[in-house]
Write a structure and sequence with these properties.
The protein is mainly β. It contains three helices and 15 strands. Bound molecules: flavin mononucleotide (FMN). The site of flavin mononucleotide has 27 residues, from strand 2, strand 4, helix 1 and helix 2.
Length: about 280
């Protein structure tokens, strides 16, 4: 089975919210789907460990704010990588209370729906709640954020509680790549450098010391690691392929070249809290 085949399934990105008395909470979800038109019903799949799961089950209502492409990674970090058990997720977030009592984002959201739970299905780690939609509204004409956009443009990842989580997201890359700081050429161990007798599968450290950059002839010492780095605090993975465009770090920037004052886009931890991902 190829787990990357599942990456070909398309989703949107939402903040599903609910309440318990005066307490509000919400979480990122990619599993909001309209399943019937008459009546209009949607399903959401929520991890049983999530606080939002408990709020939806107990209150019988939820809202889904459809995120806009303008949504910053810090918002996704707040709602998708932290739990309402530790923080008040709506602090500092623009929202209003909907008809169901659940909060609705008024910024970085293109539209919302509100629903009353009509049934639930136990699917192991998650519960699928079916909700009858009782209100919905378009908020603006911005482009909605898709799951693919989140991954490909924003460089985002999915935590363990997401139904779409795939263990070891980096396995597609094989060995560690190194980038020439002089000309930008990337040495990929999967490809090697056959023109100079370097077979595919040769790691950078195995290259002869007199090996030179095939493009600009720079020495091996001019190369920097191109691998991914993981935040020890929240688990966010910096992927040089994606960079961090929100923070002005362009795609293709190796971790070593990321500015020293750069912070984790999810939890704001400093660069020193990152470690190389094996
Ligand atoms: C891109 C993305 C998609 C996610 N999709 C889901 C989902 O569909 N269902 C789910 O239960 N968790 C999903 N999660 C994980 C939850 O948002 C996360 O576990 C959150 O911290 C739960 O917060 P809570 O405990 O305050 O409810 C997703 C996270 C991200 C970043």
């Amino acid at each position: 089975m190829d787990p990357f085949a599942l990456y070909k399934i398309s989703y949107g990105l939402y903040i599903v919210s609910s309440l318990k008395g005066d307490h509000l909470n919400g979480q990122i979800a990619n599993t909001v789907t309209q399943v019937t038109a008459e009546p209009i019903q949607v399903t959401i799949a929520l991890n049983k460990l999530n606080l939002t799961h408990d709020y939806v089950r107990e209150s019988g209502v939820f809202s889904a704010s459809i995120l806009s492409q303008t949504a910053p990674m810090s918002l996704i970090g707040q709602f998708g990588f932290k739990t309402g058990r530790d923080i008040n997720k709506f602090e500092g977030v623009a929202y209003r209370i909907g008809e169901t009592g659940a909060p609705i984002l008024t910024e970085h959201s293109v539209a919302f729906i509100e629903a009353e739970v009509v049934s639930e299905l136990d699917v192991g780690t998650h519960t699928i709640f079916t909700g009858k939609v009782i209100d919905s509204q378009k908020l603006n004409d911005h482009e909605p954020m898709t799951y693919a956009y989140y991954h490909q443009i924003k460089g985002g990842k999915s935590p363990k509680n997401a139904p779409t989580y795939i263990k070891e997201e980096s396995s597609e890359f094989g060995g560690e790549k190194y980038r020439c700081k002089v000309c930008g050429y990337t040495y990929d161990p999967k490809v090697g450098d056959p023109e100079r007798g370097i077979a595919p599968g040769t790691s950078f450290s195995e290259l002869p010391e007199d090996w030179k950059c095939p493009t600009c002839s720079a020495a091996k010492s001019e190369f920097g690691q191109c691998g991914k780095y993981k935040c020890k605090v929240c688990g966010y993975v910096y992927d040089p392929k994606a960079g961090d465009p929100d923070a002005g770090v362009s795609a293709g920037t190796p971790f070593i070249d990321v500015p020293d004052d750069w912070k984790c886009p999810i939890c704001q931890a400093p660069k020193s809290e990152f470690e190389k991902e094996e």
